[in-house]
Amino acid sequence: MIFGRSERGKPPVEPVTLKILVAGGFGVGKTTLVGAVSEIRPLRTEELLTEAGRPVDDTSGVEAKSTTTVAMDFGRITLREDLVLYLFGTPGQERFWFMWDELSEGALGAVVLADTRRLEDCFAAVDYFERRAIPFVVGVNCFEGSARYPEDAVRRALDLDDDVPLVLCDARDRESVKEVLVGVVQHAMTQAARRRSAVTT
């Protein structure tokens, strides 16, 4: 189906639109993830890294990185004819964290991307969503050449609650990213059902 048209006389379906955040540390692959899955040309707000930023932009482990997101990334993906996700990639550096409150307004859930070479870089994102009770999934971005660790070891290192999903993914691969996004929607729906159940009992 094409939006605004009906197929074989069927009435047009009004899609549900959901907002998903993509967060994580500097250089973890947020812009790549949004670009890999977006069905529209993604909006990017990247600027070149400069010498002035060297003291605050830690590029250890991502030395080849030459640009950084300074506002947000934006993309869109249709999971079903009646379900559309809007993706908002957050900037990773601490000096841009003031934007997170604006970006998280109305979000159904989030993906926290993690890099096992720099796992501590995603602590702030995990803490942010936990404090605000925003459902999130941790996606361990499997970079080439990075060590693979058991899921339990990564979960312990991040001090994740047992009900927070943790998945391995490749931020460059569309199908891998789609699986992560489906996981976010399912997790958020499960959390919402639990909250409703707690209120009615």
UniProtKB/TrEMBL annotation:
It holds the Pfam family ATP_bind_1. The keyword Nucleotide-binding applies. InterPro entries: Gliding_Motility_GTPase, Gpn, P-loop_NTPase. Gene3D superfamilies: P-loop containing nucleotide triphosphate hydrolases. Keywords: GTP-binding, Hydrolase, Nucleotide-binding. It comes from the Bacteria. Belongs to the GPN-loop GTPase family. This is ATP/GTP-binding protein. It comes from Streptomyces cellulosae. The lineage of its organism: Bacteria, Bacillati, Actinomycetota, Actinomycetes, Kitasatosporales.
